[in-house]
Each structure stands twice: as structure tokens, then as C-alpha cells.
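Table S2 (text version). Query chain:
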Amino acid sequence: MKIISWIIALGLIAGFMAKLFMPLGRIGIIKTTFLGLAGALMGECISSLFGWGSITGFNFPSLLISVLGAIILIYIYII
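Corresponding C-alpha cell output:
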């Protein structure tokens, strides 16, 4: 249960921070959390591909990778 809670918390924080950098308008907390989770998955794939690291837990590098992945997703969605 602890792992699920930090995954949801990481997704929520990453989605909220990505929305600050790339506004999407008014979307709810559930969509924000899913945006952060999807961003975490995308960020994990990209950072592992380039050898920059991976998501290891609820820490700053993992949060940074998740936020960058969510920003990329928002950018793709806007285009």
C-alpha cells in the first residue's frame, strides 16, 4: 500500500508542477494525477534511453524526471 501511495503522490505533484509550466486550463485532480503518472512513465523511458537515470522512489531526481515527462506530454497534446 505504501508503494501505491507514493506513486499517486508523485503523479499528483508532477502533474500539478507540469500544469504550472504548461497551462492546460481547468482540469480536475484525477486528470492531473493521471497526467503526472503518464509523465513519469514517459520520463522514465526517455531518461533510461539516454542513460540519465530512472525513477527510484519519491525523491527529487524522480520528481524532476516525472515533471519533465508530463511537460512533454502536455506539449504533444497541445500540438
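Notes on Table S2: DSSP finds three helices and no strands in the chain. The chain has one domain: 2-78.
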